[in-house]
């Protein structure tokens, strides 16, 4: 029987790397695609741009539908799709796809809320000066909402860390898988304790960095 120290030395580095890959990939995809969806929701609900009630309601419904699913149910539902796409869904790649699908609607609402916080007068002034929508997006909307978006990215990463632990319940790798396979199934309590401490430290570091970046971009 392997000791706690042997288990951690042998499996923890790879488990951490798998978690970093899953969370990193899903964060990038979630922020890019979710940001675009959030921008569509914001523009379609703003009379200064392309107010379109039907588009806003349709996209909003799809976002809410995905967000309403508990991640574990979403994960199980995606297994046939992941099997078709990847062959083996029980891998970090499968976990990254599932996390990405969960991250997109989550960050979409975060981004929409960030854009909605922008001073309406600033937007009106930009439109009155004849600036194109693209110019307003790149020079006004994104810069003005950047501190809030940064905090939203931090919130997304922390949420995905929690979700990544659930990915371990189906054996897709990461620290959640290590916690289940060795900490829970083999009754190695210290493995669970170490993983919990590591997660707490990671979240604290991410939160500190996020707050620092948000303050940097705050005017």
Automatic annotation (TrEMBL):
Ranges that cross the membrane: 22-44, 65-87, 93-110, 122-142, 154-178, 190-210
Keywords: Cell membrane, Membrane, Transmembrane, Transmembrane helix, Transport
Locations listed in the record: Cell membrane
InterPro entries: AA_ABC_Transporter_Permease, MetI-like, MetI-like_sf
Membrane in keyword set: yes
Topology class, membrane: Multi-pass membrane protein
Record-linked Pfam families: BPD_transp_1
Record's keyword annotation contains RNA-binding: no
Domain (ABC transmembrane type-1) ranges: 16-207
UniProt cross-references to PANTHER family, sorted A to Z: ABC TRANSPORTER PERMEASE, D-METHIONINE TRANSPORT SYSTEM PERMEASE PROTEIN METI-RELATED
Family listed: Belongs to the binding-protein-dependent transport system permease family.
Protein name: Methionine ABC transporter permease
Organism: Enterococcus camelliae
């Amino acid at each position: 029987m392997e000791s706690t120290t042997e288990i951690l030395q042998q499996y923890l580095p790879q488990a951490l790397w798998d978690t970093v890959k899953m969370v990193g990939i899903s964060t990038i995809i979630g922020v890019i695609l979710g940001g675009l969806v959030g921008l569509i929701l914001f523009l379609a609900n703003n009379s200064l741009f392309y107010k379109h009630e039907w588009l806003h309601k349709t996209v909003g419904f799809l976002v809410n539908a995905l967000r309403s699913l508990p991640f574990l149910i979403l994960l199980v539902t995606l297994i046939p799709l992941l099997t078709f796409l990847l062959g083996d869904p029980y891998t970090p790649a499968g976990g990254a796809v599932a996390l990405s699908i969960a991250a997109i609607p989550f960050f979409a609402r975060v981004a929409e809320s960030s854009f909605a916080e922008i001073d309406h007068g600033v937007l009106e002034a930009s439109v009155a000066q004849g600036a194109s929508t693209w110019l307003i997006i790149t020079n006004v909307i994104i810069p003005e909402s950047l501190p809030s978006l940064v905090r939203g990215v931090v919130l997304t990463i922390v949420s995905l860390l929690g979700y990544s632990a659930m990915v371990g319940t189906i054996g897709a790798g990461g620290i959640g898988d290590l916690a289940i396979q060795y900490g829970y199934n083999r009754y190695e309590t210290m493995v669970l304790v170490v993983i919990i401490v590591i997660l707490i430290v990671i979240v604290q570091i991410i939160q500190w960095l996020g707050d620092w970046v948000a303050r940097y971009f705050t005017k």
